[in-house]
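Practice problem: Phosphatidylglycerol--prolipoprotein diacylglyceryl transferase
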Amino acid sequence: MDLAYIPSPSTGVINLGPIPLRGYAFCIIIGVFVAVWLGNKRWIARGGTAGTVADIAVWAVPFGLVGGRLYHVITDYQLYFSEGENWVDAFKIWEGGLGIWGAIALGAVGAWIGCRRRGIPLPAYADAIAPGIALAQAIGRWGNWFNQELYGKPTDLPWALKITAGANREAGLYHPTFLYESLWCVGVALLVIWADRRFKLGHGRAFALYVAAYCAGRGWIEYMRVDEAHHILGLRLNVWTAIVVFVLAVAYIVISAKVRPGREEIVEPRSEKSDKADEDGKDGKDGKAETGDTAGDEAADEKKDADADADADGDKADAAPAEGAPSKDGADNGAGAGGR
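Answer key — structure tokens:
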């Protein structure tokens, strides 16, 4: 009797009235939000503006989902296009089946489009979101737990995963490879964050480190899985993919460090519209100050002229005799006329 094991959910769907909430899709959505949240924080720390990561993710995420599904369907085509299978199931992404290799490849195309529209270098953006992608994978792997899929070989370890009988699976206790990969991805995220702070990685090297570290773990985890897969020279296809991508990622780190050492100083150039707005604001402020100074000077001049005119009128009034007051000559003439 097995006293310790990890139980599997009895169902991967929770129905809220007419709305089904699927555990697999829920994990993918949470992973995307975590990746965007952490990527945004890292982007701002690198000198970018808030919201840029989310704007580019609008392009990257849909492309990534399509790429992940395409990779899965192409490499496991027998599940959908062989005799007795329904090809329509290839579109049922909620039932599981996303290849990380295709998701990263086509997601990078979407990110490139978004970066190009914003005038942002793709390597800098990739460095910012690399740890977030690893955490998104860690969360997304729990979707496999809901679907009771992608487990490993039989085991009697205390953390064995209990699988119930179902389509294309036998009941028993197996290695929880979904858990192994989830924990590995958390470690990859922490490694990239530490290395980026310690060595100031730039020009895509933080992203390449994430890729290399993930592939190193995916290789041995993939080797433990027992689900159906294509084999080349005795190794599963995904093991070979992990080896090839690992070598390419390490090569990129070495070559990039020699060709473009250091880190980008500017990751998000200011837009011409923002610069023009700042200049207009500055000119408006200066113009307002100049207008105020001119108006003040004119008012002072007018006041000075008015004071001068007032002084002149006062002097003139003092010099002229008051109306009706006789002058000296007038008094003398009046006296002479009366004696005649």
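Discussion: Residues 271-275, 287-293, 315-340 have pLDDT under 50 and may be disordered. Students who identified this feature from the tokens alone can consider the problem solved.
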